[in-house]
Amino acid sequence: MFCNQCEQTAGGTGCTKSGVCGKNEDIQSLQDILLYGLKGMAAYAYHAGELGAKDGLVDAFMHEALFKTVTNVSFDLGRHIDMVMKCGMMNLRAMELLDKAHTGKFGNPIPTEVETGTRKGPGILVTGHDLLDLYELLKQTEGTGINVYTHSEMLPAHAYPVLRKFKHLVGNYGGAWQEQKKEFKEFTGAILATTNCVLIPPENTYIDRLFTIGVTGVPGAAHLNTRDFSAVIQKAKSLPQLPEAPGKKIMTGFHHTAILGIADKVVAAVKAGKIKRFFLIGGCDGAKPGRNYYTELAERVPKDCVILTLACGKYRFNKLDFGNIDGIPRLLDIGQCNNAYSAIQVALALSKAFNCPVNSLPLSIVLSWFEQKAVAILLTLLTLDIKGIRVGPTPPAFITPNVLKVLQDKFDLKLITNAEADMKDMLKTP
Ligand code: SF4
Question: Whose CA is nearest to atom 8 of ligand 1?
Fold first, then answer.
């Protein structure tokens, strides 16, 4: 947001007019939060739209909210706060819309064991979040002898009945997005990037076998304007075969419909004192130091507690063996970042089962943030008045101390410290 008086960032350090335009850092911060939230929400609304699901209220809100960020439109802090909160609520609608579109087209996810590593033969690796791209690719590669692999956030695709019926969807390869320069170099097949998080390949590595589609784009990589994957298939056939190199098996597919299917068992285990607490540890992963916190935290979760996870932050710990409690896995991978909707449905179902508000449940939420969808999800959780959430590894640079204080005072939002201290603190919470 630029000031029309001093032509610097409004209310920023470059202001030469003593804030005469009436803007200040806090309004700027709230507008930035709103913009980040809208970007995240746009991703969910876009995916839903591609599957034919639209919501006029979501679209209208996006127009109104963007309009609220133009120059000299509002100097009212309270109205900006209201808009940020409304963004959280509208993001819940967008995530619900996408969840219904996904399950309507691909069925309700079923907990599924997924192979990692590679199988002998030509291969295509699909990264990003777009299940429709994956579906169309699977249809076009059926019977060609090409194996299709999911990468990172595509992992939950293996749990959807319509997608898992394709026998050549053989496994999940690699970890979170920040490892892709190394992992894509090692994966000798073709690679399809459907959404973020895609990186620019290092020179002379895999640019000639990287394809982008939809919103993605990488200079030098072939871009597909439609879901005709002939070029990707041709490329995969021309490349050296991948080796037979099996890895560890991992579980995914604990969508809320799957967890609610075993709700009786979960409630009985809690009532019998066999499950003492739930930890939701998830969100976007990132490359900066400090994210080992999430591995360490997951490792410190006591044996009588269950971990719910989602998004690519789970690659910090999803290959560890957590065992189970009375047949209930101690690590439940709910899905992609948009499946935060499922996590909310699970929390609401638990609050109903135990006849108490969500904030009184034995549930601790620890989120990692990196990009805009994580901001939208955090706003949704705050809009639902969920308190005591921990976020990390650092506060977003666009949140001013004043705005952070408002969030801390109103929602008891906390920044992560260290895994040992935070775990002790969470276990003290009733
Ligand atoms: S969860 Fe976030 S960081 Fe991870 S791939 Fe998705 S958008 Fe990127």
Answer: 197
What tokens does 218 get? 């990488």
Q: Which amino acid is at 365?
A: I
Question: Max CA-CA distance within the chain?
Answer: 69
What's the total number of domains in the chain? 3
Task: Give the Cα separation of 156 and 252 in Å (integer).
Answer: 6
Q: Is 365 exposed, middle or buried (0-12, 13-18, 19+ CB in 10 A)?
A: buried
**Are both 237 and 263 inside the same structural domain?**
no
Task: Report pLDDT for 19.
Answer: 56
Which domain-ending residue is among 106, 137, 157? 106
Residues 323 and 407 reside in one and the same domain: yes
CA of 151 to the centre of ligand 1 (A): 11
pLDDT exceeds cutoff 50 at 1: no
H helices present in 207-338, as ranges: 230-238, 256-261, 263-271, 292-300
Domain boundary (87, 106, 125) is at 106
Q: Which atom of ligand 1 is nearest to the CA of 128?
A: 5
Its pTM stands at 0.94
d(CA 265, CA 271): 10
Whole-angstrom distance, CA of residue 428 vs CA of residue 43? 37
Report percent pLDDT > 90 for the chain. Answer: 88
Q: Whose CA is nearest to atom 2 of ligand 1?
A: 284
Indicate whether 40 belongs to any domain: yes
Is the pLDDT score of 22 beyond 80? no
Whether 297 maps to a domain, the answer reads yes
Check whether 17 has a pLDDT greater than 70.
Answer: no
Q: Please check the confidence at residue 81 and state whether its pLDDT lies above 60.
A: yes
**What pLDDT score does 5 carry?**
52
Q: How far is CA 157 from CA 111, 193, 233, in A?
A: 11, 15, 20
- CA 165 – CA 85 distance, rounded (Å): 40
**Is the C-beta atom of 102 inside 6 A of ligand 1?**
no
Q: What per-residue confidence (pLDDT) applies to 7? A: 55
The arithmetic mean of pLDDT across residues 189-201, rounded, is 97
* Ligand 1 pocket member 312 (CB < 6 A): yes
Q: What DSSP letter does each residue of 328-361 carry, written as one string?
A: EESEEEEESGGGHHHHHHHHHHHHHHTTS-GGGS
Q: Is the CB of 130 under 6 A from ligand 1?
A: no
- Rounded to whole angstroms, how far apart are CA atoms 354 and 16? 57
Residue 16 pLDDT > 80: no
For ligand 1, whether the C-beta of 153 sits within 6 Å is yes
